[in-house]
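Course assignment 3, question 2. Fill in each field.
Student: A.L.
Task: Predict the tertiary structure for the chain below.
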Amino acid sequence: MTKITFVQKDGARIETEGQNGSTVMETAIMNAVPGIIAECGGACTCATCHVYVDEAWTEAVGGPSNMEEDMLDFAFDVTAQSRLSCQIKVKDALDGLVVHVPSRQG
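Answer field:
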């Protein structure tokens, strides 16, 4: 299991464990993380699972695909750290991952 911490806008931290091969979004849904809506269920056809990858994890997570970048156009307050959590696969190399949940979703 891979540890993933979701930081809420108010600074509250929700520590979870994700199954390798699943996604960060699926981990959020399984743990009822507030602010991760995931309307499309992980199909990369909305922007309601938007997160900000903590800067310490940017390189390990990698950048978005072209399709993901297109969907991020529908998210609020997109930054260089923005990713759709449905597109981040959980793996051993991400053990300890920290992502920040935006104050609102697209």
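Instructor remarks: The radius of gyration is 12 Å. The chain has one domain: 2-99.
Grade: pending
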